Amino acid sequence: MTAGSSMTTGGSSRASLPAPCVLLKPGEAFLKGRNRERFEQRLQDNLRYALRGVGGSTWIKTTQSVTVLGGEVPVEELVERARRVIGFSAVEPAVRVPSTVEDIAATVLGALDGLRAERPGLTFAVRARRRDKDFPLTSTQLERHVGGVVHETLGLPVDLRNPGVRVSVEVGRHETYLSWERHKGQGGLPVGTSGRALVLLSGGYDSPVAAYRAMRRGLRCDFVHFTGAPYTNAASVYKAYALARELNRYQPGGRLHVIALGTAQKQLAIAGAGKFQVVAQRRLMIRTAGALARQTGAEALVTGDSLGQVASQTLTNMATIDEAASLPVLRPLLGWEKQEIIDEAHTIGTAGISVLPDEDCCKLLAPERVTTRAYVPDVQRVEKRLDMDEVIEGLLRGAQCLRPGADDAATGLAAAADGACGVQAVPSR
Ligand code: ATP
Ligand code: MG
């Protein structure tokens, strides 16, 4: 049975307690006042998506800002999946026990007894939160009671300031969740709560990290990759596909549009772009991406630009590129250093793909020295020699749409037909 087909919002049986589960603590979503319900719903939907194909039935239950996840799947697997979901700040393997003082104390005692064998000199603290006000002890009384039992039985010292292990006790009406291990979650805002964006995805380190950062601010991302075809090979497409698949592990199924720019690049060169070639190409990418975004419902474009990183990314050149944009161009990495970007690429899992060789379309026809100062009239002089609307229409007509990371990878690739993602060719502006 798959996770998706068997998921319920409560169906956990108390007969079989104690039982393992996972506690998920929301990050900023929790703070969002009146939007809270919408954020929590989106977070749950995204979690459900992340659990697809997990190989066993699962259930999700949300009680007062804590989400509990369980099922017939090893807890490690559930933790691994949940840690990918943007919007949870902490992911804690936990145990469900009946809400009685005896059950709680006995389980904590057993857990710490096991831990002290592995960690000599272990100190501990108990933190309790009582959601059920009918519970016979207050939170503080429960903390003291459980701490006292552990201290007396095992002789472990309490350290409230800097404990070696912090036992968290979440007391509910029928069941209580106990955890003593905490993994950092992705944090951020649930993907989809800020709208949709289209990411210009190259094969380098920067744009995948920019995409991840955009997702962390709640943007659901589709991707567009430009190749130098027919003058370059398919290596960059494979890379873009692999990158988008990796990025889709943090969000529900973003699409990848692949557009062959080579012929249009050549047209710009023939029109005399010269030292403005790279900026002219980038304007063409931004225009084409803008037209695509409007058809796919995206409200912004995202790039991996970082100010001053390379000649094409000076303020003057960025301003000239943005002049061609019909949607806001977001640059999450504007103030990042290259090493910071590469470090994050390692953390999110895209570095190993970005490092692979490819034939980058930007290098095709690039002049020996890219100008750092391309002004709008410089590039417009070149563009006027072409019918830009027609060029863009042609590019969109030839676009392929892929679904990286869709359940069956073969289906994702098979969708590589015009219009497979509902995009039609229309002029940009
Ligand atoms: P990256 O590491 O993301 O490739 P870069 O340092 O190589 O960036 P540029 O080549 O100037 O810098 O590209 C800047 C941004 O323009 C990229 O981050 C990306 O968003 C976009 N871009 C560049 N080339 C492509 C492409 N072939 N397809 C889609 N977007 C591209
Ligand atoms: Mg690049």
Helical stretch count? 15
**Separation of the first and last Cα atoms:** 49 Å
Q: Count the E strands.
A: 14
- What series of H and E elements makes up the topology? HEHEEHEHEHEEEEHEHEHHEHEHHHHEH
**CATH superfamily caption of the largest domain:** HUPs
| CATH third-tier fold name of the largest domain | Rossmann fold
User: Mind telling me the C-alpha Rg?
Assistant: 26 Å
Q: Can you offer a commentary on this structure?
A:
- This protein has 429 residues and is α/β, with parallel strands linked by helices.
- It has helices spanning 3-6, 36-50, 75-82, 101-118, 139-154, 206-216, 235-247, 262-270, 277-296, 315-322, 338-348, 351-354, 376-383, 388-397, 409-414, and strands spanning 19-26, 58-63, 66-71, 88-98, 124-130, 165-171, 175-179, 183-184, 195-200, 219-227, 256-260, 301-302, 329-330, 400-402.
- It folds into 2 domains: 2-184, VC0802-like; 195-402, Rossmann fold.
- It is built from 15 helices and 14 strands.
- Strand 12 (301-302), helix 10 and strand 13 (329-330) form a beta-alpha-beta unit.
- Helix 4 (101-118) packs across helix 5 (139-154), helix 6 crosses helix 11 and helix 9 (277-296) crosses helix 10 (315-322).
- Magnesium ion (MG) is lined by residues 202, 204, 360, 362.
Explain briefly what this protein structure is.
Mean pLDDT is 90; it is low at 1-11, 408-420 and 424-429. By secondary structure, the chain is an alpha/beta fold. The chain contains 15 helices and 14 strands.
